[in-house]
Amino acid sequence: MQIIGCAAASLLVHPDAGARAALRKSHWQGEVMGAIASIDLVSSDIARSDRLIADILREVRWLESLFSLHRPGAAIAALNGEGFLDDADEEFLDLLRFARRVHETTAGAFDVSIQPLWRLYADHFSSPNADPAGPGANLIESAAQLVDGRAIGIADEQVRFARPGMSITLNGIAQGYISDRVAGRLKAAGVEHVLVDMGEIVAIGRDEDARSWRIGLLDGRRPMEISEIIELEGMAVATSGGYGMSFDAEGRFHHLIDPRTARSAARNLAVTVTATSATLADALSTGFSAMDETEIEATLRHHPGVGVHLTRLDGTVAILGSFPKRHPA
């Protein structure tokens, strides 16, 4: 991830009129969908905050059982193995429908059916004495024939692949969806100030110092260094960058594969997206990684209010749409 929360900690009396109780921050950190995750919940009732977090984590683990490729018995594993899924949970269906809409607005750049290509590259480079040039063109072409987000049939409670051998990954959208679910549960419970990071970030209200939540953006050229800070309230943010996982030591082949070329995307170093939904921000940051600025601007016409922080291959930054004001780190 290129985004980290950088809110201050401690204890204070909230300055809002009528507020007298001391606000403290409850913090949880763990792993969700294979990524570091956290919840920072600001409240005057720490015991209740801890109970809320414990209750919500049970739902998070259940959602992982639907979406995670690495969970034995997960719904996605059953679908990939059989080519169909009957009696799918509504959350699974909702996410696939949402993914289809983003597939359409990005002209196919975001595609959950990319998994056959991802598996091809992962298997190739994990083999001893793998050809550094990557898989053969014929293998890439064969795997690419299985990639088509339009070939995922969704009807009632059923999901079916139109072609044998298809498979999907939800890693480019599920973390945002889980972040939205957690944030929604907390808001429904009356929580007014929380920073949720289930791999992608949702900021509600303010931090314990009564300031907007501050999110550090890592430098796309030096992804261990924070280059800028944005302030968020009532917004979500997600980032995608090829540096997140490389198949080869040189980083020429990475996990962000362009479904239209069947090769690792080589348009941008990193893309950060802000939106009112982490699900949307997550999916768009994935799709935008494979798109040029003209294509991104065309997609933004379908998504008013979305902002994009784009780090080009030469290290320069482009700001598109409604991206928040930035501050130097």
- The rounded Rg comes to 20 Å
Global outline: globular
Q: Pairing-aware structural class of the strands and helices?
A: alpha+beta
CATH architecture call of the largest domain:
Roll
| Annotated CATH topology of the largest domain | T-fold
**Overall number of strands:** 18
**Mean of pLDDT:** 90
Strand content: 25-35%
The number of distinct helices, counting runs of at least 4 residues, comes to 8
Q: Which bin fits the share of residues in helices?
A: 25-40%
Would you state the CATH class of the largest domain? Alpha Beta
- Strands across the major sheet, in which order? 2-3-4-8-9-12-15-16-17
The overall number of domains is 2
H/E series, N to C? EEEEHHEHHHEEHEEEEEEEEHHEEE
Q: Note poorly predicted spans.
A: 1-20
In whole angstroms, the N-to-C terminal distance is: 17 Å
CATH H-tier superfamily of the largest domain: ApbE-like domains
Biggest β-sheet description: 9 strands, antiparallel
In short:
Helices cover 30% and strands 27% of the residues. The protein is of the alpha+beta class. Helix 3 packs across helix 7.
Based on the model shown, name its key terms:
alpha+beta, 4-stranded antiparallel beta sheet, disordered N terminus
Characterization of this structure:
It is a single chain. The chain is α+β, with helices and mostly antiparallel strands and 329 residues long. It has two domains: 3-68 and 180-328, ApbE-like domains (T-fold, Roll); 75-161, ApbE-like superfamily (T-fold), CATH 1.10.3980. The protein has helices at 46-67, 75-82, 90-105, 115-126, 137-144, 174-188, 278-288, 293-300; strands at residues 3-5, 11-13, 22-32, 35-43, 84-85, 152-155, 158-161, 194-197, 201-204, 213-218, 226-232, 235-241, 257-258, 263-264, 268-275, 307-312, 317-321, 326-328. A hairpin with a 2-residue loop joins strand 3 (22-32) and strand 4. Helix 1 (46-67) packs antiparallel against helix 6 (174-188), helix 3 crosses helix 7 and helix 6 packs antiparallel against helix 7 (278-288). The longest helix is centred in the N-terminal third of the chain and has 22 residues, at 46-67. It starts with a strand and ends with a strand.
